[in-house]
Structure formats: structure tokens, C-alpha cells
Design a protein that fits this description.
- The chain is α+β, with helices and mostly antiparallel strands.
- The chain is 31% helix and 26% strand.
- The protein has a 6-stranded mixed beta sheet, with helices on both faces. Strands 7-3-4-12-11 form a 5-stranded mixed beta sheet.
- Helix 3 packs antiparallel against helix 4 and helix 3 packs across helix 17.
- The longest helix has 22 residues.
- It is elongated and about 90 Å long.
Length: 652
């Protein structure tokens, strides 16, 4: 198997770039390593992948994605996001399938490793094709037994409890499904999408569909049966107008038919209610239309993209319900050829992937993962996006009269004048002053009078004041000398739906000998640390709250990692570090500690771009006094705020 993988990569790969040693190490040792070591290999690949994205190294990114597919399949993790990116990078589906097949042969293990990675969507392994020779065997042995993960928990249902649709047939004006076991009405979850000229009755239940997608046409409706995802069968009834649907459950069969007109006239309300299980009854269309447009807190029913219309320079997504700005995330990316604006929200795209061309520009709408719809706007030139939410529609396009950046060397301090006050007023920034209360943080002198908790609180308040002046909404995890658990800091930011999380700290030398030489400003973002310096900085800050040790397990930091968030956090850290140096060096000699990765507990769990700033070494004879100075804190606050302006300007 190892020889097979080695030959495979010799054939497919031509350049390992700056990561040649790491990739060679993976190729030679991953398959033969134990489960714990394989997990570490996988996490290292993820970290290297993030760096390749940041460095815009397309060749290295492709090589890392290929290996991430291999490690994901060995570890029973979901590889779909990696496969999707490989497709977008020009790798064929047959090559991706070859990567998956390369590891299937080596997966005959009695105890596969537990899944330690929490993805941003449900992790399910695709059902493998069953050979013709096994068709005559017992149905319950048709699917290879594998651990499946959904909603970050193991599916404990046994193989012999699974429901299989063995066959389906059209009988008169109805469809009959033959099952391997009885199906109950309570096992089926249904909902209705009823709009003018387009009625859909959708029903889902856990099961496996034999033989692929089926479609049956009746006089006034049609029935489509498909494997919606590896665990779910979906039945969709399409009609031009609302019709009452009846499901009959009897003797390992499910019959789908239209309610007869004679019964409909005598008991219209009752028959319509029989369409759905009681817990899944859908409110009438009138009630849906009367819903307010406030942001939805915990949407009960899934949002559907019913269809997409193309207009002059944009597309209009017609939705099943209203959508709020708070439910939409937008970020930008750039590779060697294209500028992209990427919009995502929780929802389900009806039909297949949609692609629209506008000259040299392009808009693609896809089901990014089972719970997320993604819209990607691509252009050869840098562009601004136009977005409009109205009633049950979302319009996205390229701004016709958008002013492009004519000079990328313009002073970033002017960015704050470019961002509109309306834009800034919608952005919530949570500022976290490190330590506090019983946790004093690092001490700057033997007397203990110079405490980190006081220095960073003063700096955080000044930063908040500066950001407020510029029009942002600012919240503090603490505004007084109080102790706050680490996990409560990011939880506060998540609960407030913050756009950025900025934690302010002061660094300290590990011993008296290094206290005279250790100095400089550093900005960190959450990631597995690869340098000793980053590890030591994280260890110092992580010691502040001993009560949290049990909460943060050894792998918890890795579990919270999200690739898009890491990239965004890295960009924010770069902008902030650059602008801190620009401002402070006008008056002071500042050492640039750089932008670094480190596993800071206080950043774990943040659902938005999050950074930690070490404003200087409190243990340094001169720098310790400087960071306690009000004048320096004022300049520092302006530099951080300039970095925030710059980040939002380039990542709107």
C-alpha cells in the first residue's frame, strides 16, 4: 500500500515547494503510523494548507489538499470540502476518486481511530458502490460498516436497523416503495414549499436508496426519489398548484399518492394535515408572508433557494423565507488569476449547481455542504460586490460604478475615510483586556506594582474609545478589574454576534536573564504553534486560569479550528501588526515581533476573526514603562484601529 501511494504521488506531483520535507514525511510514514500520530499528521497538513492559502501558493495548496483527502479517508473524516477545492483548482473528479480508492484498500481495520476533528458541517462518509456479486446477499450486509459522524456525535444506530429502499414502481397514479423493514409515519419528516405555480411536498427519512435516483410522472404531478445525503432519502413531489398527498405505510411498503377529489371536498382541512407528521406541520403561506424581517434566532425550518434568476449584472436568489444580514457571511480571496467574493448562509439549494457568466465575470451558486449555500463571484479584476435583501429574495452582483483601488501603496491610515459610516455602524468589535481580578498576569517589577492586568485594561479602554470615534460598535469583556473565565470571553463575543474579537495582553520574559533583551510587539492568531517562541507565549497566557484546564482538553484547540476563520484571523493580524508599527515608530523605536500562530485558549471557540496582541514586554526595563504610559497607549490604540479599518476595507 505504501508503495502504491508513493508511486501515485510520483505520478501526480511535480513540485513540493517550501513544504517538501513535510510532504515527504507524510508520504513515507502516515499509513504505517498509529492513530494518534495519524491525527497529528492530519492537523499538520491543515496548518500547512492555511499557510499555502495565505501565501497564494497554488501548487503547494493542491498537493496538500490531495493528502488531506487521503488522511481524511483513513481517519473517517469528511473530505468533501477538500475535494470541492481541488475541483475548483482544476483537478478532475477521476483523479479525486483515485485518491479515495487509494486508501480504501488499506482501511480493513478492526478499530479505526475515533474522529477528533469537528468540521463546520456534518461529517458523513459516502456510501461505497456495492458489487454485483453481493446483490444476492442479505440486505443488511450491503453497506460497509463505518463510523459515521453527524452533528459532531457518533451515530449509534446499528447496521441491521437501517432502512433500505429496495425498489420503487409506478402503479396507476401512485408510487410504491418496497423496503427491507417497516417504516413508521414518525420516522418521516416533511415540509411544504407552496408558491404560485410551483408546489413542492418534501419528505426525508434515514435510509439507503438502492439503484440511484428515480423519477415518476403522473397526470398533474411528479415524484422524485433520491439519496439526498449518505444517510437520508428524500422524496419530492412537484406540482403546479397545491395538492393533498397521502403516505400509506403497510407491510414493508410505502405508497405515495394524491388524495382523491371526493374525499378532499368533504374533509379538506383534515386531508391537508395528513400530508405531514404532526411535529412537522407547516404553517400556511399567509402566516409565512406575515413574518417580520428581524434576524432569525435559531431558524426552525430550513431556508431554501427555490430558483435563481439572472439580470444585467447580478443574480436574484428567490428564497422560501426572509433572510437577514446577520445570517450571511462574506469574505474575499485571491489566487494567481481571479479575485473572488464568497457569500455563505445556512440553506438548501434546490436543483443542481448554477453558473452565470457576465462577460469575463462569473457567479456560481452551489450547495457547499449539506447545510450551507455558497455564492462565489469571480473576476479577473478587483471589484466591489452589490448586495440587496428584499422580502424573500437576495440580489448579488458586481457594482457597475465601483471605484477600484488605483494605488495599492496608499497610506492605510486613509482607509478609515473610505469606509462608510453606515458600514462601520453595523460592525461589532469585542475588546478583551487580558487577565483581571485575582489573575494579575505578568508582573513588571519585583515590587509587583506594575501588573499586566492594569496595563492591558487601560489600553483596551483607549482602543474602544478610538474605535467608537470612528463609528464602530464596541463591547468589552471587562471594563473594570474583574476576573473572567477564558471560555466566557469568546462566548460573550459569540453571543453578541461580534464581527471581530481583539484580546490585549502584555508579554513577559521567561527569566531574569532574558528580561533585559526580550522586547517587541507581536500579534497572534489561533493555530497549532510550530515555533518554540509561539508555544512559550501561549503557555504563559494559558496559565492564567487554572479552573479552565479540565475544560480545554488536549485536542480542544484543534477541534475548534476553522480554515476560513484562520485565514481571516491571519489577515486581521497582519493588518493590525503593520499599522501598530506605522503609528508607534513615528515616535518610538519598536521591535517588530511579527505575526505568529499560537494555541491561545482565550481565542478558542471564537466564531469570528480573532487575534491576541502582545503590546510589549512588561519585564523589559524600558518597554515595560513605555507600555504603561498613557501617551504610548493612545498611539497604540490608533495603530490597532487603523489595522481594523484596513482589514474591513480589504475584506468587505
Amino acid at each position: 500500500m505504501i508503495k502504491f501511494l508513493f508511486c501515485f504521488f510520483v505520478f501526480f506531483n511535480f513540485c513540493f515547494g517550501a513544504y517538501e520535507k513535510e510532504l515527504d514525511n507524510f508520504d513515507n510514514n502516515f499509513i504505517t503510523s498509529k492513530a494518534d500520530a495519524q491525527i497529528k499528521f492530519h492537523q499538520q497538513l491543515k496548518s500547512l494548507y492555511i499557510q499555502s492559502v495565505i501565501n497564494e501558493d497554488e501548487k503547494t495548496k493542491i498537493e496538500l489538499l490531495k493528502r488531506l483527502i487521503i488522511s481524511s479517508n483513513i481517519l473517517n473524516l469528511d473530505d468533501r470540502s477538500y475535494a470541492e477545492e481541488l475541483k475548483e483548482s482544476g483537478v478532475s473528479q477521476s483523479s479525486i476518486n483515485a485518491l479515495r480508492k487509494a486508501v480504501i484498500k488499506d482501511k480493513k481495520r478492526n478499530n479505526p481511530p475515533n474522529n477528533t476533528e469537528i468540521s463546520t458541517f456534518s461529517q458523513t462518509q459516502s456510501q461505497k458502490n456495492i458489487s454485483k456479486e453481493k446483490k444476492d446477499q442479505d440486505v443488511n450486509k450491503k453497506v460497509e460498516k463505518k463510523p459515521q459522524v453527524q452533528n459532531s456525535s457518533l451515530d449509534t444506530k446499528k447496521e441491521n436497523d437501517k432502512i433500505y429502499v429496495l425498489s420503487s414502481n409506478k402503479i396507476s397514479q401512485s408510487v410504491e416503495l418496497k423496503l427491507n423493514t417497516n417504516l413508521n409515519e414518525k420516522d418521516v419528516k416533511s415540509f411544504v414549499l407552496d408558491e404560485k405555480g410551483n408546489f413542492r411536498h418534501i419528505s426525508d427519512f434515514n435510509g439507503v436508496l438502492e439503484g440511484g435516483k428515480k423519477e415518476y410522472k403522473m397526470d398533474d404531478y411528479r415524484v422524485v426519489i433520491s439519496q439526498y445525503n449518505p444517510k437520508t432519502i428524500r422524496i419530492v413531489i412537484y406540482a403546479k398548484e397545491r395538492i393533498p398527498i397521502v403516505f400509506d405505510f403497510n407491510d414493508k411498503k410505502l405508497k405515495i399518492s394524491k388524495q382523491s377529489s371526493t374525499v378532499l371536498k368533504t374533509a379538506k382541512k383534515e386531508t391537508m394535515q395528513k400530508d405531514l407528521p404532526k411535529k412537522q406541520e407547516i404553517k400556511s403561506v399567509k402566516i409565512q408572508n406575515s413574518q417580520d424581517k428581524k434576524p432569525k434566532q435559531g431558524r426552525k425550518d430550513p431556508l431554501y433557494v427555490l430558483d435563481v434568476d439572472k439580470i444585467s449584472n447580478a443574480v436574484i436568489l428567490n428564497l422560501s423565507d426572509t433572510l437577514s444580514d446577520d445570517e450571511i457571511s462574506i469574505f474575499s480571496s485571491k489566487d494567481q488569476k481571479f479575485f473572488r467574493q464568497i457569500i455563505s448562509f445556512k440553506g438548501i439549494l434546490e436543483g443542481n449547481r448554477k453558473n452565470f457568466t457576465f462577460g469575463k465575470n462569473n457567479i456560481t451558486i452551489t450547495q457547499y455542504n449539506p447545510k450551507t449555500v455558497r455564492i462565489v463571484l469571480s473576476s479577473l479584476k478587483e471589484f466591489d460586490i452589490s448586495k440587496n435583501l428584499e422580502n424573500k429574495s437576495l440580489t448579488l452582483g458586481f457594482q457597475k460604478d465601483s471605484k477600484k483601488i488605483s494605488n495599492k501603496n496608499n497610506n492605510n491610515n486613509n482607509n478609515k475615510n473610505i469606509l462608510s459610516s453606515n458600514f462601520k455602524s453595523r460592525k461589532i468589535i469585542v475588546i478583551d483586556a487580558g487577565h483581571g481580578g485575582k489573575d494579575s498576569g505578568a508582573l513588571g517589577n519585583k515590587q509587583g506594582t506594575l501588573k499586566e492586568k492594569n496595563v492591558v485594561l487601560s489600553t483596551a479602554l483607549k482602543l474602544g474609545s478610538e474605535l467608537k470615534k470612528r463609528g464602530y460598535r464596541v463591547l468589552y469583556t471587562r471594563s473594570t478589574d474583574q476576573f473572567i473565565n477564558l471560555r466566557d470571553r469568546t462566548k460573550f463575543a459569540n453571543d453578541k454576534r461580534a464581527d471581530l474579537f481583539i484580546s490585549v495582553h502584555a508579554n513577559a520574559a521567561p527569566n531574569a536573564k532574558k528580561a533585559k533583551s526580550a522586547e517587541g510587539v507581536e500579534t497572534f492568531f489561533l493555530s497549532p504553534a510550530r515555533s518554540e517562541r509561539s508555544k512559550k507565549a501561549a503557555e504563559k497566557e494559558n496559565q492564567g486560569d487554572f479552573e479552565e484546564i479540565n475544560y480545554f482538553s488536549k485536542q480542544s484547540i484543534l477541534n475548534f479550528l476553522n480554515r476560513e476563520k484562520i485565514v481571516a484571523s491571519n489577515k486581521l493580524a497582519i493588518d493590525v501588526q503593520k499599522n501598530i508599527l506605522t503609528q508607534t515608530r513615528k515616535k518610538y523605536k519598536i521591535v517588530d515581533g511579527g505575526v505568529r500562530e499560537a494555541p491561545f485558549w482565550v481565542l478558542v471557540g471564537a466564531q469570528m476573526p480573532a487575534i491576541l496582541i502582545e503590546i510589549g514586554y512588561i519585564t523589559h526595563p524600558s518597554e515595560g514603562q513605555r507600555i504603561a504610559s498613557k501617551n504610548f497607549q493612545d498611539i497604540l490604540a490608533k495603530g490597532i484601529a487603523d489595522g481594523v479599518d484596513s482589514y474591513f476595507y480589504h475584506n468587505r
